[in-house]
Write a structure and sequence with these properties.
Elements (H helix, E strand, L loop, with lengths): L4 E4 L9 E4 L6 H6 L3 H7 L4 E4 L18 H15 L5 E6 L1 H6 L2 H4 L3 E7 L12 H8 L7 H10 L6 H12 L14 E6 L8 H7 L3 E6 L3 H6 L1 H11 L2
Parallel strand pairs: 2-3, 2-4, 4-5, 5-6, 6-7
Antiparallel strand pairs: 1-3
Helix pairs in contact: 6-7
Length: 240
Amino acid sequence: MVLAAHHFPVPESDLPPVVLVHGFASSAAEDFLATGWPETLNAAGRSVIAIDLPGHGESPAVESSAEATTSAVVAAILDSVSGIAPEGAFDVIGYSLGGRLAWELPAASPRVRRMVLGGVSPLEPFTAVDPAELDAALAGAEPGNPLVGMMAGMISAPGRDTASLARLIPGLASEPFAPQSAAPAVPTLLVAGSDDQMTQGIEDLADALPDGSLTRVPGDHRGALDSTEFREAAIRFLKG
């Protein structure tokens, strides 16, 4: 699976590039490019590689859930990074689903140096979504599970590849997020919005990290990512 990658180089910099991984039912453009993250990171001397996840943004559609497992998506992220930066260390900023996937990156590649993970829930939402009920909700039925209704609304919003996202959900659920069993060993900063209900229990993630810390910034799930405080904390932490 070849993912789309948006590259914003700083030719004279010898600092590790920063890989940006966006959230579910979004894109690199929506979460990072449109809000100026590449420009901010470039100004700090960092080249940027912003990844579109499968079925998102400019990346290919998801043809089957079997090709969209967590391990397959993590491998695709690393392959996309290697296509632009074939060697050397890199840092990661992941948000929401991007943070959940980035949690797995250090175990899959020794190149990951430091990570900033925002908007991450310690729970796995996709295992609670029945694919048949989701399909029915997309066809207009009223779901009994409110989470299914929320997911149906997210993936059917204008500009979304609804079919791909519907296949991605059970693909990721087949290898659910189990943060306590395999916490990344690299230095990791967790960031949570003060009004972000999706990050309830993020303290448990911080406790699982051998070299981790947690900071709070203003905003709800989307507002936290767009806050000045998040951006400043990320750049400060990635300086090491």
